[in-house]
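[SOLVED] Need 3D model of a two-part complex

Original post:
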Amino acid sequence: MVSQVARPQSEPSSSASDVNPLVRIRRTCAHVLAMAVTTIFPDTKVTISTCTDTGFYYDFDQAAPFTPEDLKRIEAEMRRIIRANLPLVCETLERADIRAEIEQLNEPYKLEILDSIPLDQPITRYYIGCPDPLPANVDPSLLNQPPATESSSTTATPCWWNLCAGPHLNRTGDLNPKAFVLESVAGAYWQGDESQAQLQRIYGTAWETPEQLKAYQTQQEEAKRRDHRKLGQALDLFSIQDAAGGGLVFWHPKGSRMRLVIEDYWRQVHLQSGYELLYTPHIANSDLWQTSGHLDFYKESMFDQITVETQQYQLRPMNCPFHVLIYQNRLHSHRELPIRWAELGTVYRYERSGTLHGLMRVRGFTQDDSHIFCLPEQVTDEVLGVLNLTEQILSDFGFTEYEVNLSTRPAKSVGSDDIWELATSALKKALELKGWPYVIDEGGGAFYGPKIDIKIQDAIGRMWQCSTVQVDFNLPERFDMYYVAADGSRQRPIMIHRAIFGSLERFFGILVENYAGDFPLWLAPVQMRLLPVSDAQREYANQVAQTFKQQGLRVEVDDSGDRLGKQIRTAELEKIPVVAVIGQREVDSQTLSIRIRQSGDLGALTVPEVIERLQVAITNRQLAI
RNA sequence: GCCGAUGUGGCUCAACGGUAGAGCAUCUGAUUUGUAAUCAGACGGUUGCAGGUUCGAAUCCUGUCAUCGGCUCCA
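Solution:
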């Protein structure tokens, strides 16, 4: 597709994102939005827009908030602008000229935008509609475009502009008026900085075709259907209670049963993988947090201290110092290293009220935390071991697609150049040995060391940050940790932090959304429910349930007295993977009529046959039975 | 914390200045049932909390707590 719009000569040849027609569509749609807003609300100051994966947003400075009704009006005006089929005209400008023009217009945001454009970049502005007079460097052939439709010819020639690198569509009519929609209004800070003015951000989504828009909306509904907060309520898994406070999670019996399965699995795998398990307190003397540095660099995330007699105590926001204390409790030889200690450690962090979000962002949560103390030459192997364990655990939960980031030394950091180089290259080497592609986040590491972050992809393609491996040069120094080397000297160990689930709460939330509440048999809180057709079969059903329970299976009997149809409906709504109907026929033949939620009727099976099938599905962590 | 929206029985929602209702769930009774809702009755709410305006407040105002959509931050 060749653009007929005048373009600055120095504009870089189209990058991948510019070739994407969706980017042009969204950028143009955002400009049409801004034009519509300034038409309806002339006092509004337009700031800056950004394309997202699904659409765009534009930030406006306006005193009165936009209402949902305003959005409808703005949308209607946008459709009018699209119908008018106005050209998008690009003009290349001299910095001084546009500066003077903006100053005269009293547009402080535009001025800041102008000043933020690097000096070696061209300044371009895009008009919607034809400016009069036409700028000298604009191709006059644009004016030969078909005239605007009659609906727009009644008003004076509409014209709007903003600074923009482009590129755009040629004409507003190239937008499909049925393939975009304004979604919501939200507060956003100018320059993304809390200390700056708060603007109103209008979000929209825009696509090439109405079908694409529909597909996107279907995906949104699917995400809504899977929302762990709704499913957590509907399936009676957990709650967050007003009476207790925000961000504090109550695990109900069914959620607890699942968590127990997850924790048991986690402990077993760790013990098999050369880890020792720890339990440590949830609170400790503030001096410890002074030594660790948390009171200096992490204070804003910590709850206030608690006075205990004459001392100050601190609820823990992290587990690390406790593991260090155990290390410090006696002398360690180089022969003991690596030491791998893991704990399901509950921590408490002060999160601002507006940031809390279901299980994904809470104030009290349990990390599957581990600290590895090792020799410098062991770092690669240890990190590789962590990556292998991470893959094993995540894939057992059904997550096999990852996105890996390696974050390197930030501007402010502790530790020598040598040690940063050693650790960073050890992380790289481990990733290469693992064969995982990764993206380097330059300067994105913690101040105390480089790190690897792993995101997992869920069933509908969303990415979630869970696992992290971090090298730490800070705590060993602060706590003056050492081991006795082969020559009898005292040497500093390397400390590696890692978590695989990240937090049990968040991971559980991700599991709920990934499976949409249809958990694989090994995780399901109730694996099978026995449904007696009438009261006469209840006692038999109880006996059968007992047999299953003795095999460690989570089986229960529906004792509601409801009719079979209702019992099945109830079990389906509770997403119980297997139900077994027990009527007189089954009692007489000593069988169960099995109905699988995912795949339908299985017919009559004997109790040992059912146990066998369930056990196989559980052992293999199969989704289907 | 900031911007906006929202808080009504266990759940999903009605009532929007004039006596707080429905369905589901729960309980009781009848029915003894064969693969997604048997029938009937009953119980259940100082409308998140605290103030205020009004003859009268779920409804209007103020504060507060929480939730939702974002910002910022993050496991």
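Edit: Chain A is about 35% helix and 25% strand.
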